[in-house]
Write a structure and sequence with these properties.
Blueprint (H helix, E strand, L loop, with lengths): L8 E3 L1 E3 L2 E3 L6 E6 L4 E7 L3 H17 L1 H4 L2 H17 L1 H12 L3 H20 L8 E3 L5 E9 L2 E5 L5 H14 L3 E5 L6 H13 L6 E3 L5 H9 L5 E5 L2 H11 L5 E5 L5 E4 L5 H13 L11 E5 L3 H13 L19 H16 L3 E4 L23 E4 L6 H4 L6 E7 L2 H9 L3 E2 L1 E5 L3 H10 L4 E4 L14 E2 L2 E2 L4 H6 L2 E9 L13
Length: about 500
């Protein structure tokens, strides 16, 4: 049953410091994947709204007030945003869970605190990269200086709205840029509430604009408009490729964090229970809807049977239910489309010879603690054995709770299987032999290697991919520098002030 219009929560756009509806007057619905019910409506930005947001961001950047502030002055606003996120933590966690289907445990203890910490971290930076004097032999003073990119458009998907917003907005703003930010139209409730908190923080008008839309022409402007200097995109690889194509028309900078098919490599000398727990987190956290999901389990033959018995047993015991129930360990996927996509991949893999060891279907109504699941987008956590690395289930990103399990005999075979992928975002290695772990990590073709853990993201450490997982970095020094550009300033110091070039003709 759909909630009546009088109960719906309404969210509007943040443009030039004002919370405003779309100039078209249109709104779109947000659906709770736990229940299938509409719970909110959001202003649907039209091209005119996006153009205004870009124009206002351009004007504010060109005026120079924001970029002319010291880093410490800009940081005050970021720290205010961090404080407001913490003040409204429960509300933001509830919105994240009701909109995405992410368990309340994860929204409360990971997503909201991580977002606040990121704003505070970048807001606490003491200075931008200092001018660097270059060592040259000519009689000149050669300086490399750093400046903000200008107007940056940031575009994210629906799976980690608050975290990804912080990862992009905080470094972009502290570097002195102005930002136009677009969250996904199916997972934006927490971001639209964050936009209201940004206004409350007193951030100067137009420095951060938040628009969301179902209009492809409106969204495309965030890449094609000549007033956009840089595009920072997180999402699917095919969409990233289209953004590259569109951005080439105006030769603007692009940073892409795209898909993944991350290998989770478990050696026979691992701590078994630790590796099983880590494997479950790597594929079943957020119902597998993570670009870094450890969706390929590479398991050494010597422990295969023992490991799989424990993994399947624990997976079958996960409590499926409404994401807002604190007892829920495994919520719904975001939509009916994602649910059916995962089922299709599973069915095809079984048809190709894979063994369905766990899950692979929609849960029975009332089968889990009498939770009514019939209207939500639920899917059992799924484990497939006898998978070969050439199967689609092992090569293509499903973005759901489907684990493809493969055996390996030795270290070199594990590395070969792990690297046999178009993607290169992340990987895990489980072993007590840290010398071996280091040796393997150096040979893995990916941007992040976790050893005896999964999912450690830190504001001081960069994150990004190899190959079709994209280029550019989030977080760390490298992620901060993505939002800046360097300039060479060359000052003649020839005796008498007349360099050779001045008398060339």
């Amino acid at each position: 049953m759909v909630i009546s219009d009088t109960q719906l929560r309404q969210f509007d756009l943040l443009i030039n410091g004002g919370i405003v509806g779309s100039s078209s007057g249109k709104y779109f619905d947000l659906v709770n994947p736990s229940t299938g019910e509409v719970f909110a409506r959001v202003a649907d930005a039209c091209p005119e709204d996006v153009k205004k947001a870009i124009s206002d961001a351009r004007q504010k950047f060109d005026e120079g007030t924001w970029r002319g502030m010291s880093v410490a002055e800009r940081g005050i606003y970021l720290k205010k945003i961090a404080a407001l996120i913490r003040k409204h933590a429960k509300e933001l966690a509830d919105l994240e869970s009701v909109n995405i289907g992410k368990t309340l445990k994860q929204s409360s203890f990971i997503d909201v605190p991580t977002a606040a910490d990121c704003f505070e971290y970048f807001g606490s930076l003491e200075a931008l990269p200092k001018d660097r004097q270059n060592s040259v032999t000519d009689p000149v003073k050669s300086l490399t200086t750093f400046e903000p990119m200008g107007v940056v458009s940031c575009i994210i998907p629906w799976n980690y709205p608050l975290i990804m917003a912080a990862w992009k907005i905080a470094p972009a703003l502290i570097a002195g840029n102005s930002v136009v930010f677009k969250p996904s139209s199916i997972g934006c409730a927490s971001i639209m509430r964050l936009a209201q908190l940004v206004k409350e923080s007193g951030l100067p008008a137009g420095i951060l604009n938040v628009v969301t839309t179902t209009d492809k022409d409106a969204a495309r402007l965030l890449v094609t408009d000549k007033n956009i200097d840089m595009v920072s995109f997180t999402g699917g690889t095919q969409t990233g490729q289209e953004i590259m194509r569109l951005a080439s028309q105006t030769t603007k900078k692009v940073s892409l964090e795209l898909g993944g098919k991350s290998p989770n490599i478990v050696f026979g000398d691992c701590d078994l229970e630790t590796a099983v727990g880590g494997t479950m987190s790597a594929i079943f956290m957020n119902q597998g809807q993570m670009c870094t999901a450890g969706s390929r389990l590479l398991l050494e033959e010597s422990i295969y049977e023992k490991f799989m018995k424990l993994l399947v047993e624990k997976t079958k015991g996960l409590k499926i239910g409404n994401a807002l129930d604190y007892q829920t360990e495994f919520g719904p996927v975001i939509s009916k489309e994602q649910q059916q996509k995962a089922l299709r991949y599973t069915e095809e893999a079984v048809g190709q010879g894979a063994k369905l060891s766990c899950g692979g279907k929609i849960p029975n109504v009332g089968a889990y603690r009498d939770t009514p699941l019939q209207n939500g987008f639920y899917l059992e956590p799924t484990i497939l054995e006898n998978v070969t690395n050439n199967m689609k289930v092992a090569q293509e990103e499903i973005f759901g709770p489907v684990l493809a399990v493969m055996k390996f005999k030795d270290e070199q075979q594990a590395i070969a299987i792990a690297n046999d992928s178009a993607y290169g975002l992340a990987s895990c290695v489980w072993t007590k032999d840290l010398t071996k772990a280091d040796r393997v990590a150096k040979q893995l073709q990916c941007g992040t290697v976790w050893i005896n853990t999964y999912g450690g993201f830190y504001n001081a450490a960069s994150f990004g991919g190899y190959k079709q997982s994209g280029f550019g970095r989030e977080l760390g020094v490298e992620g901060f520098l993505e939002y800046m550009q360097s300039k060479h300033v060359c000052i003649d110091q020839t005796a008498g002030g007349k360099s050779l070039v001045t008398s060339w003709f």
